[in-house]
Design a protein that fits this description.
The structure is a single chain. The chain has 8 helices and 7 strands. With 265 residues, it is α/β, with parallel strands linked by helices. A 7-stranded parallel beta sheet has the order 3-2-1-4-5-6-7, sandwiched between helices. It is globular and about 55 Å long. The termini are far apart. The N terminus is likely disordered.
Amino acid sequence: MSEARRRTFGEIAPVALVTGSAKRVGRVIAEHLAASGYRIAVHANHSMDEANAFVQKLRGQGTEAQAFQADLTEESAIREMMEKVHWCFGRIDVLVNSASIFHPTPLESLKVEDVEAMFRMNTFSVLHCSKWAGLRMANQTTGGAIVNIIDWSVERPATDFNAYIASKGALVSLTRSLAIDLAKQNPSIRVNAVLPGQVLLPEGSSEAKRQAAIDATLVKRQGEPDDVAHAVRFLIESPFITGVSLPVDGGRTIFSGNFDDPSVQ
């Protein structure tokens, strides 16, 4: 644990709940926070076998950890999970809203049900998790930090992902709104967001697709889940930053992919 965090919490390690942390980017974020001295609440819904295995791994590394199951499309399940996490650890210091769903919804076949499903999981779950965790943080003198995982493509949308882009795009405004409302509850609560670029290529992606992802960045390298985790930790530990949505995309949001033709910049 860092010296600054030890001064804040004494010898009691702070607690981080990372939704969707049984695998993929959420798991990497949880691993980074565990290495930084946090006790970890691992969340999963359908991936509890992976969540329990991850908990055992963390415990083997000396981190206090516990797995929690919840369907994040149900507010009652979210509230129950927050109560269990708080009962188990005695506090909630960090919430990382990482869980989401992602699949194409071409406009010609788009249904209202598709949009509703995306918003229930990608938007409403973030609101409800932040609400119930934030109310716990409000009663702590140290407050807490919430980080929402959004997507760089809300700034430069891809085709055929209308429902996903809408559900994630709403989180930019929600992050700012939650920062205001929760600071009113306790000025030591901060809410920020990370907008990751492409940090995980689909399984079986070709070398050409990997190179295209690299060429689309300014830094000319492939993004990694570790890049997202570093940004999350930065926002958690920066006490004068709130209401910010931080792109972590190697410059992809601002780069057209063409250095030679200024007309497309």
